[in-house]
Specification:
29% helix; binds flavin mononucleotide; four-stranded antiparallel sheet
């Protein structure tokens, strides 16, 4: 719940883990730089491989730069919506991405100038151990992101602790080559996420997630359901 000027009520850890839903529209209320700093000051305690802390953050306030980024992200979103409408997972490995797609509205992109906080999160590729890259596996590497996404999630949890909601997005990564120069992305860095933050009417806390037995099994992935619990 968005607090007033007073400190928001503390959120118990399990409640925060289980109830930090995405917020994509925000109250017309600024988030001060001190608060952004404090959120990042909490988030930096995220784990990373070898504790190399590869993250970099650009706090994007410039309205023209934001609009430029939104213009780059919009076609990525349009294709996402077009593929999603077919029932397929958009941008899945080996999946079809259409050359063109009709414009799809997106509250974050349409009103990017009014989003209280826009964070571009990059990671230094020279600080990431990519265990499954270049290993001859016939699939894309997935471990690289593991050293930066816990940080991103910490940003959302640290925001939540302050009554601030938000959402992590990845569409900017798709147009990294175009976004690199305007963002001053250093060489050998990758754009990992764009995080939008702000005060919300309320932060959704009843989330829809699969139950444990839908994804956890005993000994092997094809083993029996773990059982023994309730949610
Ligand atoms: C890696 C990642 C990428 C995401 N990309 C987007 C995105 O591009 N746009 C968006 O609106 N939400 C994005 N999300 C938010 C998800 O849609 C959201 O976490 C999921 O649908 C669960 O919804 P809930 O938070 O309302 O329960 C992303 C989340 C993650 C973790």
């Amino acid at each position: 719940v968005a607090g007033d000027a007073a400190e928001p009520a503390p959120v118990e850890l399990r409640a925060a883990i289980r109830g930090t839903g995405s917020v994509r529209s925000f109250l017309d209320r600024p988030v001060d730089d001190e608060v952004v700093h404090a959120i990042l000051d909490d988030a930096r305690f995220a784990p990373s491989g070898g504790n190399r802390q590869p993250w970099r953050v650009a706090v994007v306030a410039d309205a023209q730069l934001r609009r430029h980024l939104a213009t780059l992200m919009q076609p990525v979103w349009d294709r996402y919506v077009a593929v999603g409408a077919t029932g397929a997972t958009p941008y899945a490995w080996g999946g079809h991405v259409p050359d063109d797609a009709p414009h799809a509205p997106n509250a974050l992109l349409d009103g990017i100038e009014r989003v209280p906080v826009v964070l571009a999160v990059a990671c230094d590729l020279d600080r990431i151990a990519m265990m499954d890259a270049g290993a001859g596996l016939e699939r894309p590497p997935v471990t690289a992101g593991a050293s930066v996404y816990p940080f991103c999630w910490n940003v959302l949890l640290a925001a939540r602790a302050r009554g601030i909601g938000g959402v992590m997005t990845t569409f900017l990564s798709r147009v990294e080559q175009e976004a690199a120069a305007p963002l001053g992305l250093p060489p050998r860095h990758a754009l990992a996420a764009t995080i939008f933050l702000g005060h919300a009417e309320r932060i959704p806390s009843r989330l829809s997630r699969r139950p444990v037995d839908a994804f956890a099994s005993r000994d092997r992935f094809d083993g029996p359901a773990l059982g023994g619990g309730s949610s």
